[in-house]
Design a protein that fits this description.
Blueprint: H1 7-20, E1 24-28, E2 31-37, H2 43-50, E3 56-60, H3 61-67, E4 76-80, H4 87-94, H5 117-128, E5 134-139, H6 145-148, E6 153-155, E7 168-175, E8 184-191, E9 198-203, E10 212-218, H7 221-225, H8 233-247, E11 250-255, H9 258-261, H10 264-275, H11 280-287, H12 297-306, E12 310-314, H13 318-326, E13 330-335, H14 346-356
Length: about 350
């Protein structure tokens, strides 16, 4: 039995390193680069990364569009650092918090030509670490350097191939009577890739041979726990549980994909941008994210682990239905869940309907 880490475990290490501000070494064929997330970068490491003048700042095309920087690679831009670039300059380019108060950050010179595979992988890792998708990338000509520095190394050919999705093991389940459904049971699922755990709330004893009333609910700390009026998440959570309690059976999948998959810190950044006048989709784009970064395959995987193959899905989001069906989960009925509209979230819900296709 091998004691060395698997590719999934190496990716988990890399995500943790980026969150702590440590560089990671990425390799592809004969090329290698040191990468570090701009959000967690400190002065000392910035000086070492940018000192030889070969480092570039990799950002998504969404962020590049806001900055009016040319994204020659299509989905990303490689911004050349000015000779007098500072850590503050790099972090200001990456973070849109001060875009309106200090809009003149360019002009930018961006690289074209050459392979951007390492830069693309670096941005993907930053997203998975729930950091801003902006990464400093410095070519690494010495293959022994990463080992000398004791850095995590990932090879695109073996460690970063397109994932089919993690596998999930049920850690434990226990009876959980709730105010909205007394016959509850909570299942805890842990992925094999070191990412967040996800939960399934089972109500009653659903028949595995029939479509189960189900909901995929993404974690929302502000709405579910604090009663935020900026979204409809809390009312949807409680409304779904109440409907399942009334029917006597159902399953609610509570997926740890806060802020449509960008994490709570980035969600708060998006909220701050909304206070500047941008809608929810525009805010995500200015941060460098897509409209929705969630992976609904997780929900399908958990349903299969629980023994369900067909659902009556409580959702207003057609994308969830398409993903369930694409993953082999039959959706026999869409059950609308229109609750929680307030004066505070009316514009947010209108944007979801107009730009994300929600049926509201």
């Amino acid at each position: 039995m091998s004691l060395s880490p698997t590719p999934a475990e190496r990716r988990a290490r890399a995500r943790a390193d980026l969150r702590m501000g440590l560089p990671v070494c990425l390799r592809a064929g004969g090329e290698a680069a040191l990468i570090v997330a701009t959000e967690t970068l400190d002065e000392a490491r910035f000086s070492n990364m940018a000192g030889d003048g070969n480092a570039v700042l990799a950002i998504t095309a969404r962020r590049a569009e806001t900055l009016k920087a040319r994204a020659y690679d299509g989905d990303l831009a490689r911004i050349c650092l000015p000779s007098d670039a500072t850590l503050e300059w790099v972090q200001t380019v990456a973070d849109p918090a001060d875009d309106l108060s200090a809009p003149m950050k360019g002009p930018f010179r961006t690289e074209r030509g050459g392979d951007a595979a390492l830069h693309r992988a670096a941005i993907a890792l930053a997203k998975q670490a729930r950091l801003l998708p902006a990464v400093l990338v410095r070519p690494c000509a010495d293959p022994a350097l990463a080992r000398e520095l004791n850095l995590t190394e990932l090879d695109l050919a073996t460690d970063l191939q397109p994932a089919e999705g993690a596998s999930y093991d049920e850690v434990v389940s226990a009876r959980l009577p709730m105010a909205l459904a007394e016959s509850g049971r909570l299942h805890i699922f842990r992925p094999d890739d070191g990412a967040e755990e996800h939960y399934a709330v089972e109500i009653g004893q659903p028949d595995r041979s029939a479509p189960v009333l189900a909901r995929l609910h993404s974690a929302c700390f502000t709405g579910d726990l604090l009663g935020s009026l900026k979204c409809d998440c809390g009312p949807q959570l409680r409304g779904a549980l109440a409907a399942m309690g009334k029917e006597g059976s159902g399953v609610l999948l509570y997926l740890n994909q806060e802020g449509r998959g960008i994490g709570l810190a980035n969600k708060m950044r998006a909220y701050a941008l909304q206070d500047q006048g941008f809608d929810t989709v525009e805010a995500n784009h200015r941060l460098g994210f897509e409209d929705d970064e969630r992976d609904f395959r997780i929900g399908a995987a958990l349903l299969r682990e629980l023994g369900f193959s067909s659902v009556r899905l409580m959702t207003n989001n057609p994308a969830k239905i398409k993903m369930m069906q694409a993953q082999g989960i039959e959706v026999t009925e869409r059950v609308p869940l229109k609750v929680g509209k307030t004066d505070e979230n009316a514009a947010y819900l209108a944007t979801k309907a107009a730009k994300s296709g929600h049926l509201l």
